Amino acid sequence: MRRFAALAAVLITPVAALAAPPVVGGWSEVPGAQLQAEVGAAARFGVAHLPKPHGALVRIVGAERQVVAGMNYRMLVVLKGGAKWRMQVWKKLDGTMELTRFKRD
To answer: Which residues of the chain have pLDDT under 70?
Structure first.
């Protein structure tokens, strides 16, 4: 019986380590190659909800994501005219979005 328990522990431990779920709540960087594809819609939504007047979105400089009840995106964007804004957009589980923080940089 001891041999079986020892063998089971050796075989099960690596499988359990591989099946560990991602840590919820931590921020991770969105790679540059994925910025437009993953963050583009949230960036456009955020810019549309900034205080007026402001220019159109020119580019996303960088972004981070956080798994919550949906996904938080924290980003730095450049608008037409050169204005830079730091924004946080929450993409909810139902697909709707909310601009939760913004600050001109």
So the answer is: 1-24
